[in-house]
Amino acid sequence: MKEQDWKKSVVYQIYPKSFNDTTGNGEGDLRGIIDKLDYLQFLGVDYLWLTPIYDSPMNDNGYDISNYYEINEQFGTKADLRELLDAAHTRGLKVILDIVINHTSTEHEWFKAARQSKESPYRDYYFFKNSQDGPPTNWMSKFGGNAWQFDDQTEEYYLHLFDVTQADLNWNNENVRKALYKILNYWIDFGVDGFRFDVINLISKGAFEDSEAIGKEFYTDGPRVHEYIHEMNRKTFGDKDFMTVGEMSSTTIDHCIQYTQPERQELHSVFNFHHLKVDYKDGEKWTNQKFDLQQLKTILMDWQTGIYEGGGWNAIFWCNHDQPRVVSRFGTDLDEAMRKQSAKTLAIVLHLLQGTPYIYQGEEIGMTDPHFTSIAQYRDVESLNAYHSLKSQGYDEQEILTILGQKSRDNSRTPMQWSADTHAGFTTGTPWIDVSPNYETINVEAALEDQNSIFYMYKQLIALRHTHDIVTYGNIVPRYMGHEQLFVYERNYEGQTWLVVANMTNEPAKLPEDIEREGDIIIENGTVTGGYLEPYGAYVLSIESK
After folding, report:
1. What is the per-residue pLDDT across 325-350, written as a single tens digit (0 to 9) for each?
2. Which CATH class is domain 3-104+174-378+412-462?
């Protein structure tokens, strides 16, 4: 595949259930995406990433797949997907499908057959263990509780690193791999343009032993993971005009370089989440903790320079369906003017980094966390599990709601805000999850009418990436890393130098005396007065190369 086909591209992530509903049932659908393709084309993105749309009981909103070959009827039909692909391709847009091949739903026919008999050939598609003394190991599920579930039908435990209804697949079994490659090739032949592989670095399990922590050292970037991904590449997409990105859980820079070095023939790019744990307390997600700017800068720059120097490739992002809204998280949503200012600066900081940028639906208009006030408003299984866990630990109701309001995955899953109409123009029915109450002022219709809106900043940044090679291919040099308010870095390429300067706080920031002041303004979101950059201000300066 030619580099220019994807390295200069921008991806827009769609969470179909919350994007646009054309049936009035309160849930988004494929036809709703078709109806908004002109909007996405106008924004200027290149790829659309759809979170899972396959048959599923929806215990984890589609990441529990029960049939890889069928479309979940709540989203539509294969004919709708075919029409979506054709309509997208006509507009120069490509479509990436999200696929989960670390585990299946326990409603999948493979797992049902595995439960019927210990002699079933599908038994070895999963990890079943006999244990007379409780769970075989002390590994913890990512969603809480032990990672082994007792199966009454065959009186053995099966492994589930995520929800109890998501049984992990045994990639050691060659038949499992062949079956999965067949699935991938089916969708490649159908005409999709890429895959986003969910938690792909967990597919190789090591020894089944008790852990000193939660078990992840036995399955994260496991012993055969690179072998498996290389084989998958060779058996499916490797010789196609295709883009792949792997979601990496608790990974390392060294592994991600290996996953994405072109000569290794594994993946094109990788997601890592280390920079989105800077508001955890002692590594614990479910805490009321503000983010650490110094830690955020250090992690981002370590990954930027490490991946670049190693010849790998990053996916860069602030938001997705599993993360809170960035303007509420690293900016501010308490004041309307500062919401716009901080959202634009966060966009500048991210989109001038090296790697492939991802925009999550609504990010381009500065959608915020919904600030739910009742546990009854939450739908996410992980959030509900956390609620009960915190309750059992003695936390009071308001404290738990504060924590969920800061960390829940539902913060990003509220309906897309299209207009000031009822339910933000998302549906004529009752939405499956509450719309954020600020939809009357924060919506696409209003953003398109305001030439100074967040939307047009994103449009400008996308155009910069398309037209300036320095954004794609330039190296990155961290600057003034110790500054308590500023995030500053350089991009350098073929005699060009761009300087990115951003105030990441709600107070004016004193600029260093020796910072470059002269050059051409590439993009600007804030003024400098008396040597101070205004709160949440940012600018990009083209200066003489060093």
Report:
1. 999 999 999 999 999 999 999 999 99
2. alpha beta
pLDDT for residue 546 is more than 60: no
Question: Residues 472-531: pLDDT tens digits?
Answer: 999 999 999 999 999 999 999 999 999 999 999 999 999 999 999 899 999 999 999 999
Helix count and strand count (H, E) for the chain:
15, 23
Cα distance between residue 147 and residue 132, in whole Å? 16
Q: Measure CA of the first residue to CA of the last residue in the chain; give whole Å.
A: 33
Q: Which amino acid is at 71?
A: I
Tell me the per-residue pLDDT of 254-293, one tens digit each, with 9 for 90 and over: 999 999 999 999 999 999 999 999 999 988 999 999 999 9
- Residue 369 annotated as catalytic: no
Which are the contacts of 309, defined by CB distance < 8 A and separation ≥ 6? none
Spot the catalytic one: 46, 156, 193, 247: 247
38 phi, psi to nearest 5 deg: -65, -40
CATH 2.60.40.1180 fits 475-544, yes or no: yes
Question: Is 189 a known active-site residue?
Answer: no
Domain borders along the chain are 3-104+174-378+412-462, 109-168, 379-407, 475-544
**Three-class secondary structure of residue 498 per DSSP:** strand
Structure-block tokens of residue 140: 């913890």
Domain 109-168 falls under CATH 3.30.2110.10: no
Strand partners, 105: 166
Task: Please tell me which residue in 168, 198, 363, 380 is annotated as part of the active site.
Answer: 198
Is the pTM here over 0.70, yes or no? yes
Q: At 373, is the secondary structure helix, strand, or coil?
A: coil
Q: Are 428 and 27 in contact (CB under 8 A)?
A: no
